[in-house]
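## Example record

The block below lists the input lines for one assembly entry, exactly as stored, with component labels intact.
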Amino acid sequence: MREQNCVNVFGAALTRRNFVKTGGAMLVGFGLIDAKAAPAKNSLDPTRPGSWIEIHPDNTILIRTGKSDFGQSTAFTAYKQIVAEELSARFEAVTTVVMGDTDRTPDGSGAFDFLGGGMPNIRKAAAYTYQALLDLGSQRLGVPKDRIKAANGVFSANGKSVTYGQLVKGQQLKLTIPVEGNLTDIGGLTVTGDPPMKPVSEYTIIGKSFRNPVIPSKVGATEKWATDVRLPGMMHARMVHPKTLGSTLVSAGQVDKTRFPNAQVIVKGNLVGVVAPTEWEAIRAAQQVSNSTKWTDWKGLPGNANLFKHLREECDWTSTPVTKSDKTRGDAPAAIAGAAKTLKATYEMPFMKHAPIGPTMALADVRADGTVHIYTHNQNPQALRGEIAKMLGISIDNVVVRVYSGPGHYGRSNGGNAGAEDEAVILSKAVGKPVRVQWMRPEDFQWSTQSPAAYSDVEIGLDANGKMVAYQVDHYMPAMQDDRPVGAILAGLPTMPAPDEKQDFVQSTKNEIEDPWVYDGVAILAERGHGTFQIGQKASPLAIGLRDHSMRTPGQFQQNFPRELAVSEAAALAGADAIQFRIDHAREDRVLNILKAVRDASGWQTRVSPAPHATSTGSTAVRGRGVSMMFRSGTYWACVCEIAVTPATGAIVVEKYTIAVDPGIVVNPMQLKRQVEGGAVMGISHALLEEASLDRSGITSRDWFSYPILKMADVPEIKVVLLNRPEVGRYGGGSEAANALAAPAIAAALLDATGKTARRLPLKSVYVQALMKT
Amino acid sequence: MATINVNGIQHEVTASNDTPLLYVLRNELELSGPQFGCGISQCGACSVLLDGKEVRSCVLPVSAAVGKEITTLEGLPGRWATKKGLSKSDAEKTLHPIQRAWIEEQTPLCGFCQNGMMIKAAELLETNPTPSVAQIKEAFTTSGPSAHLCRCGSYTAIIDAVRRAARLMAEGGAR
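Predicted structure tokens for the full assembly:
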């Protein structure tokens, strides 16, 4: 065989080696723009054929993605639809999706923004592939490309036809496509260039409700979960984490060998773990060792009672540059000073936990040859690979991460780790055997990262006609993304720096404006973001303190609650209906449409808040409704919550939740609906219940009683309205923004029902009850 | 050392008597249905049926399961086959109507809690074949040692699936 020719396909290179005896395929790989970058061992060689898409002679198609599906279903439904659509192949022809594994997928990045603002890597890779196939089809059929019709994996022209499988049969075709970026960065690699895309008007696969092919195995108990992976000689481990988020080790306890003859304690710096051949022995021995392990004391945190005072008065907001939104314009203080009516208020959002339903776990095998193999569930396995290599001072060539199904992480591991991974590696290296670390429920609340607390100061000026003339907000939030593996910190091993003002992108202490402004009729706007260091991190002798991490709708949750509740309050102040008030200040078509859609779908009656029947006293439930909206990742969202609140007890019941979603093109209505319902429920849970409890030493939430989440009995009637708008030409993201919408809508509904405004989350009954008496 | 009956098969296990059943099912029998969610009977991810009643295997000592019939998610098809008098080979080819309903309604998101949800549904539908939405909510929230928790928020999809499963079971179930 020899290289026959090389064809330029819109910037990609198609090479052909003719005449293999059996099989054949088109393999779509990458051409690195930086050609000097050496591909790593144990990586899918970016320039090697087959790293991205494979077209097989039997007309089946395989795709690979670095994205790990955590229940979004996107990698198994939308990605297959997108590839089949761009290729004009059948959905069912995409038979295999390889996901996440660092040695078997090409591009890295985290399990977020799957649809990439309408241009995910897999779409461009498929578009390049289609153009290459079209070149081959044109040659085979002997007609110009523009006279060929493609459908169901078949090219036809002039009464002749050829399948994609036939085009690749007996040949070794390799398509090299351009990429840029860094594999182990949070964003991974990005496919570049501008291949032609299939016109949206010709879509036949995108827009249909294909089922998630992974569900049968999860339901039928045949799925291999990360929790099911076992290796020969594997040991079970439980950790003995420090007493506080700043405690250092005084002395580690010893295993009582009369009770636990097979267990051993491993100590490295402040990292203490107990390893045993069986899980139950590891659990009980770790409890026993924990009881006799001594730690220093530490009280460096503000605790719940002083949290917002600490944030406002004691945090350093000056070291980190202030950010501004792109739309900031005009002299807001002057406009507000001259306004007919003004609203000035502060909004407070608590620390919240990602709280996966299963605590973090990982199995690591540090082998005698120096290679490290990790089996886990992780939202960014390539980033984890980089972090483990850094921790051990080895090349990423020696690290492989394999990914399996596991509990949803909601952002917690999108920077590479959730807690157990690096600890399993450290313990495996120490004992020379594969070690499985499983955190227990209290550790998963107390030693994991959290969504940062924040507060915002809002001022709104209204003119004599009740129109908003100026909106000003200052958002204050500590750093949001600490991707340092906690076991490495405890063990004193190398990690990336803690978030600070010098770093870029997500690891910076900068508080970016995450909630795009949607009320373009407001002439004067000032939106500023103030960032600071994580609370307690610098003071903690462990350099730990309260580590934060992005959680669904990161940053935007903390900014959208103040904005949307303040706008509802401003509407009340103006004597206007909350939806009409928004419509009157919006200019963009899609903003207007989403507000009208949620108004009509919810049966909203246009009137001013509070409701005529509003009362803040009595033990009879009083009803109210509120609205909220947001724009995120190419998608417009609006929701209406209808609540019943009992003033005497402060108990809020959400009775009906209506949500309208305009992502442009709806890729898969059934899957999007289920995602939106899930986000709605999590959002109601955030709004009503969720707050990490703190004392001066750490997080005191330790289980599902001390950190309650919404239960089935509390789920309202949920109505999801999907607006499919093919004319937009792009598909926006769909699986997280619903989280943010409930809180401002429920708080606005409380205002409607009672005339009282709750500007602090969560809306627990004890807080609402006290508020009613103010 | 104990002998337990799991999904109709007797197993002699080596774990000490105080070992929670969950670790025996997962680590000795290598079953993947029941999951470790909390270890303190607060979430339901580890649920199994013990003589038809939903229990939390994360806190139940294996000794307490001796002499009783344990059904895990893996055993739901066999349980349905027995009820319908299907042959063993037919039973292996089918799913419990609850599992079918979970697929048809596309219920799981991450799916980690759904083992317990389907086990709870089995307990409910065996005692109340036509539950109302209020009865479904009650069953999953207050009837057991704790509410069955889903962090992804699939409760609406679970309610849809339980209602569909009730219809499928009334119609005679599989295919």
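DSSP finds 17 helices and 31 strands in chain A. The longest strand of chain A covers residues 635-646.
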